[in-house]
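Try this one yourself first.
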């Protein structure tokens, strides 16, 4: 009995719902809007805030991905053989041009120099005696030439001995930072063995790749900027534009240089090269004024002379601390800065000019 009552109640509720829906109790969105606004009443245009904008000249910039490279990197090699007796600097130390890095054992080099110096003195005496005899007419021309050759040979031996003695003191060939040291005290090295590497980071280079489309617009000597990984922006200058393209990417190397006297910018970090390429007309507008059209196109909404909304597709050319630079826009605009989210192209609005 309870089951029959339950089924009966269900049928009554269902039937009542069908009758209610069929009777037109639901109203459409338009009917609801008319009800809220009042049937037949005209709706006033929406108020929006507008600001005039005039296109300005800006330097269009080409942004390339790149990385930092040392100005120079030199491998210091032994110019003579011997045992390492002193290591004077450690990795990371700043070095000046000609600063001593490593010393080798003296061995018999000093004795060789003393011997060569004594021989030179002897040859000088012999040469002076030959000159005196020649002036007196007792010395043949051939003997004079022989004495001169012997003197020159002795001078060369002294220079070689001095060089060999000087080479035990390994010096920095460039100023910079001692990046690596490859020997320790007690190691034996031969002529030509690598001992250390020194890198020069001032100025530091930033290298990127530019496509052939923009190659003709990048010029050596142009000032630009580099943005580092921590968003620091520093002044830079274009110092090199390659003339041979990469076979795999068909791009050309471009280098900029940054003054780096303290060596704070190191090699191998990611950076952006901002290259000036040409002057263009653009509007500087607050990012909040941008809108997306139904198809996803980035645009700016403005009003025409009749206060009708017009959506202008835009192209972002760059950014600054107080706005973004937009291209592909008319020279003069009345940009909707407040309320653009609530109006559509073709809709008439009431414009309220912003007063600073």
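Now uncover the answer:
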């Amino acid at each position: 009995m309870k089951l029959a009552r339950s089924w009966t109640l269900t049928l009554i509720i269902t039937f009542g719902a069908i009758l209610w829906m069929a009777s037109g109790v639901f109203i459409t969105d338009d009917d609801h809007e008319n009800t809220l606004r009042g049937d037949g009443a005209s709706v006033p245009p929406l108020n929006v805030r507008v600001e005039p904008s005039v296109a300005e000249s800006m330097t269009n910039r080409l942004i390339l991905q790149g990385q930092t490279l040392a100005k120079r990197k030199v491998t210091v090699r032994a110019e003579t053989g011997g045992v390492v007796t002193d290591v004077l600097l450690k990795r990371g130390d700043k070095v000046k041009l000609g600063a001593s890095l490593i010393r080798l054992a003296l061995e018999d080099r000093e004795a060789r120099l003393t011997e060569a110096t004594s021989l030179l003195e002897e040859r000088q005496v012999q040469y002076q005696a030959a000159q005196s005899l020649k002036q007196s007419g007792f010395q043949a021309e051939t003997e004079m030439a022989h004495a001169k050759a012997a003197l020159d040979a002795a001078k060369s031996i002294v220079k070689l001995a001095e060089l060999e003695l000087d080479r035990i003191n390994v010096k920095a060939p460039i100023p910079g930072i001692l990046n690596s040291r490859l020997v320790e005290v007690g190691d034996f090295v031969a002529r030509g063995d690598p001992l250390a590497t020194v890198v020069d980071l001032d100025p530091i280079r930033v290298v990127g790749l530019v496509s052939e489309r923009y190659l003709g617009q990048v010029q050596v000597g142009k000032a630009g900027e580099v943005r580092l990984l921590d968003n620091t922006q520093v002044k830079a200058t274009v110092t090199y534009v390659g003339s041979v393209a990469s076979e795999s990417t068909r791009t050309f190397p471009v280098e900029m240089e940054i003054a780096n006297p303290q060596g704070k910018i190191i090699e191998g970090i990611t950076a952006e090269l901002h290259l000036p390429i040409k002057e263009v007309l653009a509007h500087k507008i607050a990012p909040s004024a941008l809108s997306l059209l139904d198809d996803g196109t980035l645009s700016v909404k403005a009003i025409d002379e009749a206060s009708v909304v017009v959506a202008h597709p835009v192209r972002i050319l760059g950014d600054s601390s107080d706005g973004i630079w937009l291209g592909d826009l008319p020279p003069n605009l009345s940009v909707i800065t407040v309320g653009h989210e609530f109006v559509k192209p073709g809709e008439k609005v009431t414009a309220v000019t912003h007063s600073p």
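Discussion: The CA atoms of residues 23 and 262 lie 84 Å apart. The chain has five helices and 22 strands.
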